[in-house]
Amino acid sequence: MKSILVCTNQRDNPHQPSCGARGAQALKQRLTEEVNKAGMPLGIKEIQCLGACEEGPNVKLIPSGPMFQHVNVNDLTSLLKAAQAFAKS
Questions:
Q1: Integer Cα distance of 7 and 27 in angstroms
Q2: CA nearest 85: which of 36, 47, 41?
């Protein structure tokens, strides 16, 4: 099944960047709501790291889809358009 991975890693050291410290849980919740509302055949999954903590929150379309960085809940339009196209491919 095609899915959207959302990194939700929360580092213990507040001086190190992490997706969790930048609102990844709220992002995951909003993505879940929007994907369900649109009826997209995509799962939403949490992952602990996508390897780009400095660029988070990070989201990846799997399998073999693009990765999105610096994603926030107020700027989901392009991500949702890409996810919809990805789901149909």
A1: 10
A2: 41
Task: Quote the CA–CA distance of 15 and 46 in Å, as a whole number.
Answer: 23
Q: How far apart, in whole angstroms, are the C-alpha atoms of residue 29 and residue 70?
A: 16
Distance CA 77, CA 63 (A): 21
Distance CA 22, CA 3 (A): 22
pTM: 0.90
Give the count of beta carbons closer than 10 Å to the beta carbon of residue 71. 24
pLDDT in tens, 28-56: 999 999 999 999 999 999 999 999 988 99
- Distance, in Å, from the CA atom of 50 to the CA atom of 36, rounded to the nearest integer, reads 24
| Closest CA relative to residue 62, chosen from 81, 87, 37 | 87
Per DSSP, 21 falls in state G
